[in-house]
Specification:
The complex is a heterodimer of chains A (226) and B (92). Chain A has 226 residues and is mainly alpha-helical. Chain A contains seven helices and no strands. Chain A has helices at residues 14-40, 43-78, 82-118, 124-140, 145-170, 173-193, 200-224. Chain A is globular. Chain B contains four helices and two strands, in the order αααββα. The chains are: A mainly alpha (226), B alpha+beta (92). Chain A binds chain B through residues 32-33, 35-36, 39-42, 44-45, 48, 117-118, 162-163, 165-166, 170, 172, 174-175, 177-178, 219-220, 223-224, 226, and chain B through 8-10, 13, 80-92.
Amino acid sequence: MLRLLFAPKWFYGIDIAFEIVSIIVAVLISYYSYKLYTISKKKEHKYFHIFFLMIAIAFVFKILTNFDLYFEVLNTLHIGSMQIQYISKNISTIYRFGGLFMYRLLTALFAYGLYMLSYRKHDRKDLLLFVYFLSVLAFFSYYSYFLFHLTIIIILGFVSMNYWRNFKKKHTTNSKCVAYGFIMLSLAHLVFAIVEIDLALYVVAEVLQLAGFCLLLGAFISVIRK
Amino acid sequence: MRGGGRRDRVDVILAILETIYTERNEAKPTHIMYKANLSHKLMDSYFTELIEKGIIEKFDVKGKVRIKLTERGSEFLRELRKMKSFMESFGL
């Protein structure tokens, strides 16, 4: 049977709170880069704004999907009747598929978008081709979540390498936070990929992801407070 | 200016505003043109835009034109420095 739920029961809701923090950070960064775009009119700043907005929306889809999954578990445990379960499962399967597809597609676009900006690959044809590839990935990873996380690790790995080089060049607190933040995000996906080994790994992955976004928030705050 | 690459609008605007700021808010247009490495035509177009937005203003000192930052301009300069620094931490 296809397994979609990896969080231990005691962690239900806590992961949603973690995701809300990530949404807030992503929206802040997106808004700030949009403000800069209105002055600079640079495509890079506009794309940067869009990609961070995408990851924020991706987390909204993840929350909605997880909420539905958690609700069904509780429903089955306390109320469950055969007929009700059957109907809700049919609706939920489409809902979950859609939710997970959107979460994975937007996350993959976020990662690829940052890769594109990091390595100055701005060709629109490349982007369209990758939108297609990443849509295929998001679609089929419903049956193999490992494939999705593996792809994200590779893309975010390259992005992290670039941010690390940037930190070594600039030696600023912000660039350090950004480099470590993306290393954390890459590690989070590495742990998500092997989560089936032990449910506790889901918690580790969520904590790593939260730490990654908190480091990005740290970079943001250190700039704002100057 | 930082680096040797092509400058964008933010770099140019920052160079103009930083020059005015370092000249104690009483900069000569020719000085700005020299420090920001701009042509006369380009400088004029930036001046027009920045004056329209209330970021800088022209004033006279013994019949000679000087440029200063408005209160809004000083705030804008602080904000622009932060934004630039933030995007640089992403290598942009």
